[in-house]
Amino acid sequence: MNQTQTIKELIEDILNKLTVDASVQVLETAEGPQFIIKTQEGRLLIGENGRNLVSLNHIVKKIVGKKTDKSKDFMSFSVDVNDYQAKKVEELKNTARLNAQRVRYFKKEVVLKPMSSFERRVVHITLEDCPDIMTESRGEDLRRQVVIKPYP
Questions:
Q1: Which of 25, 53, 69, 94 is most solvent-facing, going by the fewest CB within 10 Å?
Q2: How many domains does the chain have?
């Protein structure tokens, strides 16, 4: 059995133990497989501001890491519920582009709200090809935020 199938079965097992009626679809992406859970009980799995979904990702990755043969490469993957993360990523990209336009127009840096490392990475990657814009992260721990500023 391949690793993708093993991860899918692990997620289905976790959902069964949580008594959540759901299906799991696998979408192959450039970053690795994405396991998309479709369910009517999405709010339970997503949680407030996606906290439960972050935890679910963490738990699945920890279990896979323990079960995976250390001599093999660890497969990069993610778990999403009802396309919540996909919508959030698109929202972050739009916020990054909009604020880059503000920086271009006003020639002043814009400081975004504190974000998780994943969210900050999305902003940095979205704007990395803009020659007139630079991004950096500032702050510590939960107060870490992205600063978008004009290139000197």
A1: 69
A2: 2
CA 113 to chain centre: 17
Question: Do residues 109 and 145 both lie within one domain?
Answer: yes
The angle at the Cα of 82, spanning 115 to 129, to the nearest 5 degrees, equals: 45
Mean pLDDT, range 136-145, rounded to an integer = 93
Q: Are residues 116 and 51 in the same domain?
A: no
SS (H, E, C) the chain: CCHHHHHHHHHHHHHHHCCCCEEEEEEEECCEEEEEEEECCHHHHHCHHHHHHHHHHHHHHHHHHHHCCCCCCCCCCEEEECCHHHHHHHHHHHHHHHHHHHHHHHCCCEECCCCCHHHHHHHHHHHCCCCCEEEEEECCHHHCEEEEEECC
- pLDDT average, residue stretch 22-30: 92
Q: Same domain for 101 and 136?
A: yes
Predicted confidence at residue 130, as pLDDT, reads 95
Total-model pTM? 0.78
| 58-113 confidence digits (pLDDT tens) | 999 999 888 776 545 667 899 999 999 989 999 999 999 999 999 999 999 999 99
